[in-house]
Amino acid sequence: MKSATILVADDDAAIRTVLNQALTRAGYDVRITSNASTLWRWISAGEGDLVITDVVMPDENAFDLLPRIKKARPELPVLVMSAQNTFMTAIKASEKGAYDYLPKPFDLTEMIGIIGRALSEPKKRVDRADADQNDGIPLVGRSAAMQEIYRVLARLMQTDLTLMITGESGTGKELVARALHDYGKRRNGPFVAINMAAIPRDLIESELFGHEKGAFTGAQNRSTGRFEQAEGGTLFLDEIGDMPMEAQTRLLRVLQQGEYTTVGGRTPIKTDVRIVAATNKDLKTSINQGLFREDLYYRLNVVPLRLPALRDRAEDVPDLVRHFVKLCQKEGLDAKRFDGDALELMKSYPWPGNVRELENVVRRLTALYPQEVITREIIDNELRTDAPASAISTEGLSGPVTIAQAVEENMRTYFAQYGEDLPPPGLYHRVLHEMEFPLILAALTATRGNQIRAAELLGLNRNTLRKKIRELGVSVYRSQRSA
């Protein structure tokens, strides 16, 4: 059987050598060039079964070459590499018809796997109009965590798959949803967002599905809901974990049947919207607590996407700072420059409010400080002033907070979420069930995974502990004692 021929174009000699060796070892015939013109000559002559090309070439940008390749040989898979590891690079690669995108430095094993899939199941891709060449990049960051997010989003652009975005507050969940809409197949339709936590519980169904005149007290006119407003576009359901159970049941029915009725209405209305949901809660815990429907969770969690906290991608802080400074300049504020020591301090800060907190700090510094250069001393003073208080109030308490005090504070916050209403029945068993997991995990961690010692520590029978580990899904880690 004839070996597949891989055409490689990259002006970096070291990368050409590495790719030549790796692809040859994998059993492929390899032809390598350092310029786009030679690559195009090979392709137009019908040579090659797959192309690997860098974006930036000495004589031509690969994004300019890709439409010609897809027009001449639409079945030819093209794998794009780039050191310009931005969201727009991944999106442009997808829009121009690339089979896949890999940021540099790339993993050779992953590349070989992608090549194998591309050659075994070549996909024809529809060429689309050029992407807008604007600088309004919606997502910023070149970290490995963000690169994976860019790749997932690029693959989702031309689908209508339901997406569940999770992550801490301030990580940019709505920004990701907007990017998916603005650069996807529904970009000509409306983007409609609704925050479940910001709407009174008794009005959520009306907000989502609309209501008829006279449906309830105060309904003097017919009102359109968010589903109707988002028709043909994207509906972003933010803080989905705060949706009341009754509304969850109606939403599940819409997802299953593709139609809904307004509050007080009888005629089913067909719906054509893409659903993107987001939450900062652990929905599996909410399911165990009886606060979220398990069947709805699996309907929404078709494609899960977890956004990293800013502290987990600290290398992106300088890029984000420069991005927010540019935004401030466009709004008429003076240009600022952050010196190296200032940026290093910002990279080491945990940013409990994530990207939203960073943006607020940059805006505040830009607006309030007359200095052209923001120094480490300024940042140190600002972050010290901005440091959040403890989540648990210890005013009037001496010593560390006890478990009882922590539980009491947690229960006070939990009941406050329901206002004048009460939580669902079964609270006693839900709280005990939720406390078991961290208790058993802490015991296993303290005993380095030794279940006999952990059972003794907890005062449980060993078989009982094993049963609880299985039921709760506790991961048992065995670690070596440090020297």
TrEMBL record:
Function of the protein: Member of the two-component regulatory system NtrB/NtrC, which controls expression of the nitrogen-regulated (ntr) genes in response to nitrogen limitation. Phosphorylated NtrC binds directly to DNA and stimulates the formation of open promoter-sigma54-RNA polymerase complexes.
Keyword flag Signal: no
Domain (Sigma-54 factor interaction): residue spans on this chain: 139-367
Residues with 4-aspartylphosphate modification: D54
One GO biological process term: regulation of DNA-templated transcription
Lineage per the UniProt record: Bacteria, Pseudomonadati, Pseudomonadota, Alphaproteobacteria, Hyphomicrobiales
Residue span(s) of domain Response regulatory: 5-119
Subcellular localization: Cytoplasm
Record keywords, A-Z: Activator, ATP-binding, Cytoplasm, DNA-binding, Nitrogen fixation, Nucleotide-binding, Phosphoprotein, Repressor, Transcription, Transcription regulation, Two-component regulatory system
Name this protein carries in UniProt: DNA-binding transcriptional regulator NtrC
PROSITE patterns assigned: RESPONSE_REGULATORY, SIGMA54_INTERACT_1, SIGMA54_INTERACT_2, SIGMA54_INTERACT_3, SIGMA54_INTERACT_4
UniProt GO molecular function: ATP binding; phosphorelay response regulator activity; sequence-specific DNA binding
Pfam families in alphabetical order: AAA_lid_14, HTH_8, Response_reg, Sigma54_activat
Gene Ontology, cellular component aspect: cytoplasm
TM ranges: none
SMART domains on file: AAA, REC
